[in-house]
Every structure is written in structure tokens, then in C-alpha cells.
Write a structure and sequence with these properties.
Its cofactor is heme b. The protein is 67% helix and 0% strand. The chain is mainly alpha-helical. The protein has one domain (3-182): Fumarate Reductase Cytochrome B subunit. α1 (17-43) runs antiparallel to α3 (56-76) and α4 (87-118) runs antiparallel to α5 (138-173). The N and C termini lie close together (11 Å). 16% of the residues are buried. Bound molecules: protoporphyrin IX containing FE (HEM). Protoporphyrin IX containing FE binds next to α1, α3, α4 and α5. Protoporphyrin IX containing FE binds at residues 30, 33, 37, 41, 56-57, 60-61, 63-64, 107-108, 111-112, 115, 148-149, 152-153, 155.
């Protein structure tokens, strides 16, 4: 069956084209986010000297927008998406995905809160999201400082777990889990 036969919306058998486009573009943007921070922490590249590292805030904001759209689309498709299955593994899969969604919302939101609270102004892609302000809002900056980086790394571990579980499905159970998000055919 040609690729175009993939449905736009999700079905109980496969994720549709919209979910796939959002899933893989968010995956790429998150990979970029961790790469920029690895360059910053590993090689000491600063956002001021490196456009790559400096893109972290901008790309993170774009990722956040796509994550919100992804969540809305998931809710709109909730009644006819592929199920996680029953039993302990199914419950663990649901819990894992729930935690991942939660982290994907909180991590960039915390950074945006900090950008707002700092009062320095924030204009991703040239669009003024937060104008400059006289005084910073200390509690906001401190609160966001305490969670963005730490939870960002926890989220990295959750992503590795997510990828590892797909690998396990492919190697051990061979149940076509990856094909639901990456396969070229609309499974029957
Ligand atoms: C989902 C998207 C994002 C992910 C996965 C992410 C992840 C991370 C990680 C892992 C760190 C390293 C913390 C450390 O030094 O140990 C970091 C730092 C940083 N992030 Fe993000 N980030 C995201 C979005 C954003 C956004 C939207 C902004 C700005 C609005 C931002 C601004 C920063 C800044 C300024 C730092 C360096 C200071 C700090 O450690 O907090 N990030 N991020």
C-alpha cells in the first residue's frame, strides 16, 4: 500500500500523518536541545559566542508550541488511537507516556517563566513574546531556575527509556510497535 494511504487522523492500528509529523519534528527539536546543552556543558560554548548554543531558547519555544499542539491532537484522537495494551506492561507504558508528556510541558514552561520573570525581554524568531521590564520577579526566576535544568535531564532519561522500550518491543516481542509511528503502511 502506498504511503499516501496513511490516514490523516490516528486509527486503532496506526498513528496518522499529523501525529507522526508532530512526533518526529518534536523528537528532532528535543535532540537539538540536548545537543546544544551538551556543547555548552561539555565544551564550555556559551550562548553569546555560539549561534548553535544560542538557539536553545528559540528552538525550545518552538518545541513547546508543537508539544501543546501534539497534546491537543492526542486528546482529539483519544477515542481511536493505538492502545498501549493491558497488564502490567500496558500500565507502565501509559504511566511512562504520561510522565513524558508532563515533563515536556513543565520543562519549557519553566524556562519561559524564567524568561518572563527575568524582565530582560524575550523575542524568539524576532517576535516579542515578553517585553523588557524594570525589575525581575525574583520568586519566578528562582522557582524556574530550580526546575528547568534538573527536570530537563530527568526528561532526557525518560526519553532514553522510551527509545529503549521501543527497541525491546522490536527485538523481543516483534509486535510492530515502531511501525505504528514509522511504518509506511496503514496496518490492518
Ligand atoms: C523542551 C524544551 C527544552 C529542553 C528539553 C531543555 C533542556 C535543557 C537542559 C537539559 C538544560 C541544561 C541544564 C544544566 O545546565 O544542567 C537547559 C538549560 C537552559 N535552558 Fe533549556 N530546555 C528546553 C527549553 C528551553 C526554553 C524554551 C528556554 C528559554 C525560553 C530554555 C532556556 C535555557 C537556558 C537559558 C539554559 C541555561 C541555564 C540553565 O541551566 O537553566 N530552555 N535546558
Amino acid at each position: 500500500m502506498p504511503r499516501s494511504s496513511l490516514p490523516l487522523r490516528d486509527t486503532p492500528q496506526v498513528y496518522g500523518r499529523v501525529t507522526r509529523a508532530l512526533h518526529w519534528s518534536i523528537a528532532l527539536l528535543l535532540l537539538w536541545q540536548y545537543m546544544t546543552m551538551a556543547l555548552k556543558l561539555g565544551f564550555g560554548w556559551s550562548p553569546r559566542d555560539s549561534a548553535v548554543v544560542g538557539s536553545h531558547s528559540m528552538i525550545g519555544t518552538l518545541a513547546f508550541v508543537l508539544i501543546v499542539i501534539r497534546l491537543i491532537w492526542a486528546v482529539m484522537n483519544a477515542a481511536h488511537r493505538p492502545a498501549h495494551g493491558g497488564g502490567l506492561i500496558g500500565i507502565a507504558a501509559k504511566a511512562g507516556h504520561g510522565l513524558l508528556y508532563l515533563a515536556m510541558l513543565i520543562v519549557p514552561l519553566a524556562a519561559l517563566l524564567r524568561a518572563f520573570g527575568s524582565g530582560r525581554g524575550f523575542a524568539p524568531f524576532g517576535f516579542t513574546l515578553f517585553p523588557t521590564r524594570e525589575a525581575p520577579i525574583e520568586w519566578m526566576v528562582n522557582f524556574a531556575n530550580a526546575i528547568h535544568g534538573e527536570l530537563g535531564w530527568v526528561m532526557g532519561v525518560l526519553i532514553l527509556g522510551h527509545v529503549g522500550m521501543v527497541g525491546l518491543h522490536e527485538a523481543m516481542w516483534k509486535d510492530g510497535t515502531l511501525a505504528k509511528m514509522a511504518g509506511r503502511k496503514a496496518l490492518r
